[in-house]
Design a protein that fits this description.
Nucleoside Triphosphate Pyrophosphohydrolase; four-stranded mixed beta sheet; 7 strands; 14% helix
């Protein structure tokens, strides 16, 4: 782990209407067990955080996503170590995605409770709960991917 912390790509996946997002519950036997989370995980060697978010979302939920833009970047010290969280706003590739694999499901953004997520997620939860139209971006507004080189 570097001084910046273990890089983690996180997919904040909004539904087409922007009023729901994919949320799951962490298993009890892992760090931060019982907390809610967005799909995501550690970057593999030579993998960008955006690519990690896309890969982890598909692995964890069964839903393929397209990144729209980076929402936040946060380094945080937990008891189990330092992490650098790269939150990516994503949308499902399929306009009518299937149900997510458990423990993930579509949850109303207005009902998200930052107290049920790991501490470093608070800012992103605040953005989602505020009702700001985060998904109202056109293709020309999307952040260029850093993983296409």
């Amino acid at each position: 782990m570097t001084a910046e912390g273990q890089a983690v790509g996180i997919a904040v996946v909004l539904s087409g209407d922007g009023h729901h997002c994919l949320v799951g519950e962490r298993p009890a036997d892992v760090p931060l067990g019982g907390c809610l989370e967005f799909p995501g995980g550690k970057c593999l060697p030579d993998e960008s955080p955006c690519d990690a978010a896309i890969r982890e979302c598909l692995e964890e939920t069964g839903i393929a996503v397209t990144p729209m833009r980076q929402l936040a970047l946060r380094t945080h010290d937990y008891d189990h170590g330092r992490v650098t969280l790269h939150f990516w706003l994503c949308r499902p590739t399929d306009t009518n995605p299937a149900a997510a694999s458990e423990p993930f499901s579509w949850q109303p953004t207005s009902a998200l409770d930052a107290g049920r997520f790991p501490e470093a997620n608070a800012g992103v939860i605040g953005q989602l709960v505020s009702g700001r139209p985060l998904n109202r971006l056109t293709d020309s507004d999307q952040t260029a991917s850093t993983h296409d080189s």
